[in-house]
Fold:
Amino acid sequence: MPIQFKILGYAGLLPFICLPLLIVTDITNYYYTFQHFVQYSAIILSFFGGIHWYDALQNNRVNHQLYVAMLPSIVGWLGLVMLDGNVLLGILSCAFIGMLMYDKYTLVMQKAKIIEYTTLRLALTTIVVVCHLAMALVA
Structure:
């Protein structure tokens, strides 16, 4: 996997890491920062659905993968519209973990590439979930 994928993946963690830190240091208001955090989380979650949409299209598969590709967007949006607080953070965290597990067993790639991809995703998802926990704790 080219280094650019890793750099961009880790760069995508900056809002997850920085927003809880802004609250802890009293630089910003909790309510607005929480909203920005969960909105960013839902957007990034939707991105993982796009991976499956592309994989299903690329491999000409109209099966569960095509439908599961829509779930992250729907879960993220419904969560933003209907939930709040720690429940929303928990749902988003579970969705990130669920997509990681689904990726591992569904994506069609060369074995070495899927191992490298899921290893990167495991690291990124772990940090994302820890940041969701941190956001829940700073309330």
The mean pLDDT is 94. The radius of gyration is 16 Å. The first helix runs from residue 3 to 11.
